[in-house]
Design goal:
It is a single chain. The protein has about 240 residues and is mainly alpha-helical. The protein has 13 helices and no strands. About 10% of the residues have low confidence. The chain is about 70% helix and about 0% strand. It starts with 11 loop residues before the first helix and ends with a helix. The longest helix is centred in the C-terminal third of the chain and has 35 residues. The protein folds into 2 domains: about 140 residues, no CATH class; about 80 residues, Orthogonal Bundle (Annexin V, domain 1).
């Protein structure tokens, strides 16, 4: 079973997209590498729709402000500290006088770390994706390239023949592919766990990712074992 196979069900694409969006840059690159090794169509679709702060700041100011308003005061101040004065003003201009004063006071008093800022940005991306899923942000009006059609997983599968381990080039191919994918997932697990041990702000998010990847790796190993057993049975029959 490939990594993408876990996300072929309805809504699976968004789930995978959200996982990648809320990963650190290194983890994001690793996940995309695994996805691309299995399906060019899935990888291209993810890259076209993945959320970044640069992308969010191309949206209308009032939409961007609504995203920031979903953050607690400290997190909002932490996020704004990491942006230049122009971007800060784009957000603050839609705040009431009292809200603006509270945020500016918090920004002046706090000393956030790079880890806290990065963790806050990941939280912002998570909030934005949820607002899109809930219909609070209408991407068809502000960023059509981010639209995800119905039954998108089926459409992507049809664009990628053999992308999920299919094909009949060799009886041993499924077992080999499962083994290679398991190795890639295991490598990603180790990287996630190592980062979680050293980065304070991202520990919770990375631990969740590590747990998900551990389950994924176990499923791949089980699938690989079953395929090997079936292959052995076929050989005995032949």
């Amino acid at each position: 079973m490939s990594m993408i196979s876990r996300y072929k069900r309805p809504g699976g694409f968004v789930q995978l997209l959200s996982l990648i969006e809320t990963s650190t840059a290194a983890k994001k690159e690793k996940f995309l590498e695994i996805v691309r090794s299995e399906s060019e169509s899935w990888a291209n679709a993810i890259e076209q729709r993945v959320l970044t702060m640069d992308r969010i700041f191309t949206w209308p100011d009032n939409v961007v402000t609504e995203v920031f308003k979903n953050l607690p005061l400290r997190n909002m101040a932490c996020a704004l500290q990491g942006f230049d004065a122009e971007k800060q003003e784009r957000i603050l201009q839609y705040m009431s006088h009292s809200e603006r004063r509270k945020i500016q006071d918090e920004m002046g008093a706090m000393k956030s770390s790079p880890e806290e800022f990065n963790g806050t940005i990941l939280k912002l991306l998570e909030i934005t994706r949820k607002m899109i899923s809930d219909g609070q942000i209408r991407v068809e009006k502000i960023d059509e390239s981010m639209m995800i059609p119905e039954d998108f997983e089926d459409k992507l599968e049809k664009q990628s023949p053999g992308a999920f381990g299919g094909g009949s080039s060799s009886k041993s191919a499924p077992s080999s592919q499962g083994h290679q994918t398991a190795e890639k997932v295991q490598e990603a697990i180790h990287q996630v766990q190592n980062t979680a041990a050293s980065g304070s702000a991202e520990v919770l998010q990375l631990q969740r990712m590590a747990q998900a990847l551990t389950k994924e790796n176990k499923s791949l190993k089980d699938e690989n074992r079953i395929l090997r057993e079936k292959l052995e049975q076929i050989r005995k029959i032949a």
